[in-house]
């Protein structure tokens, strides 16, 4: 088959690039793929979980805290960051800083819910959607071993904290 002189072989690649560019611009303006999915049924479910967790956290008594909110927020941050490296020892050490049940309750409130995935290769990690909500208890349960949980629970009980993992 012969090619005509002056044939426009460049047309389809240009059309393809323009189409992809238009799609990317539309996604950018509409919040990307996660923004599109947040308007669906999964978002309603996640919002329900977050609302229930927030309601439960709001009802906890924080009278008699032995640590400042700044200190407890630091503990929450340490626990969250330890999750990315599956460092149960760091979580146990951080929870050792709680002095009483009010400190634990405030930690639960300040930790709130975090969106994350339970596997490395997931749509949550790769594209930012289909993430699970984790409160403090679910986060610790997902990371620490059974032996570490027993150690943490014993330490909490020694400090008068009745909440257990």
Total DSSP helices: 9
Judging from the principal axes of the Cα atoms, what is the shape?
elongated
Helix content: 55-70%
N-to-C SSE series? HHHHHHEHEHH
Category by helix and strand content: mainly alpha
Give the N-terminus to C-terminus distance in angstroms. Answer: 73 Å
Number of domains: 1
Name the beta content range. Answer: under 5%
Report mean pLDDT, rounded to a whole number.
Answer: 76
Using the CA coordinates, give the radius of gyration.
Answer: 24 Å
Total strands: the figure is: 2
Largest sheet: 2 strands, antiparallel
Strand arrangement within the widest β-sheet reads: 1-2
In the predicted model, the low-confidence regions spanning at least 5 consecutive residues are 33-46
Word description of this protein:
- This protein has one domain (11-158).
- The protein is 63% helix and 4% strand.
- The chain has 9 helices and 2 strands.
- A two-stranded antiparallel sheet has the order 1-2.
- α4 (69-84) crosses α6 and α5 (88-95) packs parallel to α9 (146-158).
- The longest helix is centred in the first third of the chain and has 19 residues, at 11-29.
- Mean pLDDT is 76; it is low at 33-46.
SSE blueprint and pairings:
Elements: H1 11-29, H2 32-37, H3 41-58, H4 69-84, H5 88-95, H6 101-111, E1 114-116, H7 123-127, E2 132-134, H8 136-143, H9 146-158
Helix pairs in contact: 4-5, 4-6, 4-8, 5-9
Supply the key terms:
mainly alpha; two-stranded antiparallel sheet; 4% strand
What is this structure, in a nutshell?
This protein has 165 residues and is mainly alpha-helical.
């Amino acid at each position: 088959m012969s090619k005509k002189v002056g044939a426009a072989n460049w047309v389809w690649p240009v059309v393809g690039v323009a189409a992809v560019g238009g799609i990317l611009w539309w996604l950018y303006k509409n919040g990307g793929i996660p923004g599109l999915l947040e308007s669906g049924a999964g978002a309603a479910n996640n919002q329900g979980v977050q609302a229930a967790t927030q309601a439960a956290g709001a009802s906890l008594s924080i009278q008699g805290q032995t640590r400042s909110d700044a200190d407890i927020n630091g503990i929450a941050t340490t626990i969250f960051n330890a999750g990315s490296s599956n460092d149960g020892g760091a979580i146990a050490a951080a929870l050792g800083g709680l002095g009483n049940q009010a400190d634990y309750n405030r930690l639960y409130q300040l930790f709130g819910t975090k969106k994350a995935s339970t596997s490395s290769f997931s749509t949550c990690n790769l594209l930012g959607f289909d993430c699970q909500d984790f409160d403090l208890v679910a986060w610790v349960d997902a990371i620490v071993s059974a032996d570490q949980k027993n150690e943490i629970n014993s330490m909490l009980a020694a400090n008068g904290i009745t909440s257990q993992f």
